[in-house]
């Protein structure tokens, strides 16, 4: 770790530690999409408001909300990764707006979704288990 810190500091200066920060902050949009949708889906799937929602329906609401939020906000992941992984001097991308334009011109819209399916395979089951666990713990407490 210390070697990496020294190399980044020497090659890029202190600003190198903040590469991709803007796009990482844009990542909160994912949560802003997922959780309201999750709550809406729970309400829609609850056909009897006097009873607690079945675990299977919690899992469905979680999976659908995660897939939708990931699909809508995934381009920020691509941009963040590209900005953070630059190692050439001068850097290929000068910022978020420049990266978006250059990626679009050179690779097209599909480039913003490269890796989405792998991301969904990794994150949807984790989200399902996390939200189910949360809901069940809330019931017990």
Question: Can you lay out the helices and strands and say which pair or pack?
Answer:
Blueprint: H1 2-12, H2 21-26, H3 28-45, H4 55-84, H5 96-107, H6 116-140
Helix pairs in contact: 3-4, 4-6
Q: Portion of residues in helices?
A: over 70%
The fraction of residues in strands falls at under 5%
- Terminal-residue CA separation: 41 Å
CATH superfamily: Mitochondrial carrier domain
Largest sheet: none
Overall SS class: mainly alpha
Q: Figure out the total of helices.
A: 6
Q: Any idea how many domains? A: 1
**Which regions contain 5 or more consecutive residues with pLDDT less than 50?**
none
Reading off the top of the CATH hierarchy, the class is best stated as: Mainly Alpha
CATH architecture term: Alpha/alpha barrel
Compact description:
The chain has 141 residues and is mainly α. 72% of the residues lie in helices and 0% in strands. It has one domain (20-140): Mitochondrial carrier fold (Alpha/alpha barrel).
What would you say this structure looks like, in words?
The chain has 141 residues and is mostly helical. The chain has one domain (20-140): Mitochondrial carrier domain (Mitochondrial carrier fold). It has six helices and no strands. It has helices at 2-12, 21-26, 28-45, 55-84, 96-107, 116-140. Helix 3 (28-45) packs antiparallel against helix 4 and helix 4 crosses helix 6 (116-140). The longest helix is centred in the middle third of the chain and has 30 residues, at 55-84. The mean pLDDT is 93.
């Amino acid at each position: 770790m210390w070697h990496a810190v020294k190399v980044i500091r020497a090659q890029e200066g202190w600003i190198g530690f903040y590469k991709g920060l803007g796009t990482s902050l844009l990542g909160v949009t994912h949560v802003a999409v997922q959780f309201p949708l999750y709550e809406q889906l729970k309400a829609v799937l609850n056909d009897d408001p006097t009873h607690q929602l079945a675990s299977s329906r919690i899992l469905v609401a979680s999976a659908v909300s995660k897939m939708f939020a990931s699909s809508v906000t995934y381009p920020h992941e691509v941009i963040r990764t590209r900005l953070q992984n630059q190692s050439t001097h001068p850097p290929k991308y000068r910022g978020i707006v420049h990266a978006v334009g250059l990626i679009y011109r050179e690779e097209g819209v599909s480039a913003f979704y490269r890796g989405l399916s792998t991301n969904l395979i990794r994150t949807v089951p984790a989200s399902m288990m996390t939200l189910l666990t949360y809901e069940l713990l809330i019931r017990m407490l």
